[in-house]
Amino acid sequence: xxxxxxxxxxxxxxxxxxxxxxxxxxxxxxxxxxxxxxxxxxxxxxxxxxxxxxxxxxxxxxxxxxxxxxxxxxxxxxxxxxxxxxxxxxxxxxxxxxxxxxxxxxxxxxxxxxxxxxxxxxxxxxxxxxxxxxxxxxxxxxxxxxxxxxxxxxxxxxxxxxxxxxxxxxxxxxxxxxxxxxxxxxxxxxxxxxxxxxxxxxxxxxxxxxxxxxxxxxxxxxxxxxxxxxxxxxxxxxxxxx
Length: 242
Prior knowledge:
By secondary structure, the chain is mostly beta strands. The protein has helices spanning 20-23, 46-49, 78-81; strands at 29-37, 40-44, 61-63, 70-74, 93-98, 112-121, 125-133, 141-148, 152-157, 167-173, 180-187, 190-195, 201-203, 213-221, 227-237. The chain has three helices and 15 strands. An eight-stranded antiparallel β-sheet has the order 2-1-5-14-7-8-9-10. The protein has a seven-stranded antiparallel β-sheet with strand order 3-4-15-6-11-12-13, with no helix packed on it. Residues 1-10 have low confidence and may be disordered.
C-alpha cells in the first residue's frame, strides 16, 4: 500500500500583494489557459508573467490574498463549461509549460522539477506535474503525476511515443487541502519521483527511448468538476538553471 505522507512546512516570503510573477521565477515558463478558441487555448508568454505587476486573472491564475500562494483554477469539463482544450487533448488546463530551454535531453545529468502545493479541489482528478515529449517528436507525455479527489497520487507513464497505453503506478496519499511537495527526475535516462523529500520511486520508461522532453506544472484537469490547486514553490533544476 502507498504511504500516507505528512504535511510539509510552507515556503515563506510570498507577497500576497504581488502577481504570481513577483513570487515565482516565471522566466522559464509560459502559461496555457482554459480559454481562447477551440483547439487554440490562450497562451501567456514568460515576459508577460514576470514581475510583481505581471499578468494574472482571478478566474484562472492569480495570487491568493491571504498566504500568497499561486492559485491555478480550471472551471470543469469542456462540454459543461465551454472551456478550451489543446488540439490533442479532451481536457482543460491552467498549466505552466517550460521554456528557456524549451526541451532537454533525458540522458543529461540533472533534469528535475520540484513543487510545494496543496490541492484544494481535484475535480475528480487532476495532473499536477508532468514530463512531456518535445513537440517535434510527439504530442504525448512521458509521465503525468495525477492527484485524485480521494487524495491518492499516481504517476502515469506512457509505454510508447504514440501514446494511448499509459501504465499508472501508486506513489502515495495526501489528504485534500494538505500541503505537500513532490520532485520528479528524468536524468541519466532514469525516471523517478518522490513525495515530501522521501525515498525516490524509480519507474520504467518502457519503449520511449529517452525522447527530448520538457516539464509542465499546474492544474491539468482530468475529471469533470471545477478544480483548484495552490502552489507555494515551483523549481526546475538543470545545469543551465541556478
